[in-house]
UniProtKB/TrEMBL annotation:
Entry superkingdom: Bacteria
Identification of the protein by name: Enterochelin esterase
Amino acid sequence: MLVSTAFPGMAQNKKNQRFKAFIQELERSSLADRSSLVDRYLSGIKSMPIMEGEHDVHFIWYGKAETLQIEGDLQKAWAIPDTLIRIRCGHHDFFYISYSIPSDAIIEYRFIADGKRVLDLYNSRVTQSFDYGDRNIFSMPSLVRSPFLDMRHDIEKGVTNTVLFKTNDSLFTDRLIWVYTPYNYTKGKTYPVLYVHDGMWALYLRPFVNILDNLIYQGKIEPIVVVFISFEDRWNEYVTKSREYAKLVVEKLIPYVEANFQVSRSPEKRGIVGASAGGHAAMVAALTYSDFFGNVASQGGGAGGYPGLNKLVNEALDTYLTRKDQYPLNNIYSEVGKYDLEFPDQKTGLLQGARQFHKRLNENKIDHIYREINGGHCGESWDQQFDDILITFFDK
């Protein structure tokens, strides 16, 4: 039998003492009585991790293990796992750890049992990742979920077509793109266009299309065309050669889209977005080519952290400063999680880098939106903000 639960950061809310009282009773009990006490306590728990009040969360695990750790957003952004406290209970042992976190936080986590990564089997909410593996996720009680995330069956929907975009360039190689056209896409009309990095993830792991359909149907944004771009060599394209990659997007992909779809050629009607490394690539592209892109959003996109990220995006900003009077960006949106990625070896992280970039934008009197979200480096946290991004760019 395996029981697990997660909670971030050393809970101390005196108004919510049920879990603390249970731990005290368990520690006072004899070894022979502990298993029945745990079983009785767990039978009254409806979901994991255990949340008490607005801020306290408790991760628990009941099973066979010598050492139980937890890694995730709360543990230095996955960098340094915390070790759970162990109470011996005979055949199985009870492990726990508690945290106090913001009341609207979204947090990802995973357990490590005797060196092996395992999910919290008593938390059915699991996020999938192509590169990091499955993780558990939970949200705190005060989170107000975006009303635009879920698919509706009572509204008209756009159509997404798969296209093989062919090119002979060694960096921007042949790849799939997916083009979303809104309901009632009409010949003779031009539409705003949005370019989205990590296109396959946006389509298959995140509710982008639901958000688009819902916002357009409710009249929150004007109908738009969206180009979801896949990657072939993500780190190379989005980070180390992001400037060269942006040049190819501008010189090859945009002309192809404009020749085959009814999209506006006005920068103010064109946007580019991404998350994580894709957000970094979006910011570099827009700052470098503000004569093409009038709108940019980076979610957890790394405006700092790795020295390379800090250097590349600031070089792009240097370029923009020489062109901003002639080609000003309409909207710059930069978002980072308060539990975003950290790099202990370099004594920095995405949060620190984003703050530095925000400061530099302010110093140069560049209008922008900057947000620190009570979450980590995860899609579900980013999804919560995406309706606001689209409304900011394409408000009807």
